Amino acid sequence: MAKYEYGGETFQIDGAGDCELKVSDDANTVTISPRPSSGGYTITANGRGRYGGNSVNDAVRNACQELIDERTRPTRDELCDSMSTFIEELGKTD
User: Fold this and answer.
1) CA angle (80, 85, 90) in 5-degree steps
2) How far apart are CA 83 and CA 25, in angstroms?
3) How sure is the predictor about 47, in pLDDT bands with cuts at 50, 70 and 90?
4) What's the rounded Cα separation, in Å, for the pair 9 and 5?
5) Measuring CA to CA, which residue among 82, 66, 64, 86 is closest to residue 74?
6) Residue pair 41/30 in contact by the 8 Å Cβ criterion
7) Is residue 94 pLDDT above 60, yes or no?
8) Count of structural domains within the chain
9) What is the C-alpha to C-alpha distance for residues 20 and 43, in angstroms, rounded to an integer?
């Protein structure tokens, strides 16, 4: 396992898999694998895959950013609360 610095944070990269990298923070793990159809790499997080970049460096940076985004993404409950608040505010203007 190797350490990788990105955005002022330290991530762990495990290259022990068969032609894949696992990038982790303290909470989650993202997998990077080849995407031959595009000549680049796929990042898979939470069962969702997306294009990660043309180079391993780009894919690792994008994986780290995905991990940061995942921690700062609102939860379902927070999003539902925002919708309820929006509707309540609309009702106050009547």
Assistant:
1) 130
2) 30
3) confident
4) 6
5) 82
6) no
7) no
8) 1
9) 10
Distance CA 31, CA 10 (A): 17
Instruction: Report how far apart, in Å, the C-alpha atoms of 4 and of each of 1, 13, 61 are.
Output: 10, 7, 9
More confident residue, 3 or 73: 3
Question: Residues with Cβ < 8 Å from 85, sequence gap 6 or more?
Answer: none
pLDDT, average across residues 18-32: 94
Domain of 73? 2-92
Q: What pTM was computed for the model? A: 0.77
pLDDT band at 63 (very low <50, low <70, confident <90, very high): very high
Q: Rounded to 5 degrees, what angle do the CA atoms 24, 29, 31 make?
A: 105
